[in-house]
Amino acid sequence: MINLAQQISGLAPATEAAPVLSLLRGTAFSATRDERTRCLVVSSLWQALPDIAGVNYELDPRAEYDLILLPDDVELSEIGRLLGQTTNPAPVIISGSQALGLRADLVLSDWSAPSLSAAILSVRPLVRRVSELPRLPLGPDRNGLSALALAYTRDCSLAPVIRPDERAVVAYPILFGFSNARNMLEELADAGMLRRRFFERLHICQHCDSSRLHAREVCVKCRSSHLAEQPLVHHYACGYQSVQSAFEAGDSYVCPKCRKELRHYGVDYDKPGGVMCCRSCGDTMTEPEVEFLCLDCRQSTSGDHAGFRDWYEYDLLPDSIVAVKGGKLPFSASVDDVPRGRTLRDFTLLVRHSLSVAKSTGRPLCAAKLTVDTTDLVTKVGQRGVSSVCELLRDVVVQNLREHDIVAALHDAVLVCMPETDDAAAKVAVAQIQHAIIATVRPKLNIGVEIFSGVHINQLLMTV
Ligand SMILES: [Zn+2]
Ligand SMILES: [Zn+2]
Ligand SMILES: [Zn+2]
């Protein structure tokens, strides 16, 4: 069996430097096209990589690939750039160095044929998992979807770590190469796609926004940190109280107010505590001020004025898994066009509320789930066409319902909840929707319909 890419490279005239160098030097071609692993090699030493059956080496970062191989040290910014232009939502990475931290799925020191081939074999289940997801769209959803896809395919949370070498001091290692990961994650959390778990509160410099701050106590008058704590001395006889140094006269204590000598502790005087003295300006204060010295811009921010930033670890929620599988975030532009297309979370909340209303008022309530046979659909329009067909389906459903009906789309199904509707009326409404789908949506869809009424709606909520 001859690989298509091999044919192309075989047919290309030698004078034309083809941008895609398909280096098919593997000897065994028994593997089918789907089982081949396409590896983007980022190294000037790619020729030194061994031939491995079932593995294609790619050098063009614009080509489609499953895996990135980084056999030697590459500029981190170059890898960031590479990840920024791929359409793969969560490329698997095998790296020769530890520099990528958690973003490398495997760190490999021995790049000989047996070792590399075992490494590629070991990440193949992950490669397969990533390949089942839709490719990344261009535009504002790209990074958010990629972040969710990374967490989903690696089965992990989006967890921060302390990073003193970065101005923000906190970073999300798995989101290597993402600019402004925190804002993106916060938006996703606000949209009900991620659950926050508190990690740390970090203060920020009011001049440059850095969190690399050194906290210290300073003089309230001259802002110097050259402070010393001094005990207070209280003279019982005249009631005068001041810092100990004001009483010191050679080896003994003399009251600076009444000039008497203080002989016995507890009889003539006591020490009721201490005060802070500034060694720079001589001022004394009971409480010095807290101030942050910025290690980046060297300017100070008073503790009262310093803002702070809370950092979180984020877990995926059901809506984010729907988004990853559908290749689309629910709060992007198309949702504005369909205001009643809810997120799964909103849908669940609204349906629970409707259920309790129906229960207390005794009014009917029905729900329906219209499930698309996606295996059938994939053969007709391909994996990537599925999400656009499902969107169209949702739009058709929304257009054929009443204003107070609640609709949400999953990657392969549309959920509908119809208040004030009994079983018979729900069947009529769903039949009407099916007619509209047959009339509007191409290719023809195989749709499974389930109708739930009353308390059975809970079963529906539990399955989504
Ligand atoms: Zn001072
Ligand atoms: Zn005195
Ligand atoms: Zn600063």
Q: Could you give a quick summary of the protein structure above?
A:
This protein is an alpha+beta fold and 464 residues long.
Walk me through what this model shows.
With 464 residues, the chain is α+β, with helices and mostly antiparallel strands. Among the domains are: 129 residues, no CATH class; 68 residues, no CATH class; 126 residues, Alpha-Beta Plaits. 32% of the residues lie in helices and 25% in strands. The chain has twelve helices and 24 strands. The strands form seven sheets. A five-stranded parallel beta sheet has the order 2-1-3-4-5, with helices on one face. The protein has a five-stranded mixed beta sheet with strand order 20-22-23-21-24, sandwiched between helices. Strands 11-10-15-16 form a four-stranded antiparallel beta sheet. Helix 4 crosses helix 7. The chain is flat and about 105 Å long. The N terminus is likely disordered. Bound molecules: zinc ion (ZN) (3 copies). The site of one zinc ion (ZN) has 8 residues, from loops. One zinc ion binds next to loops.
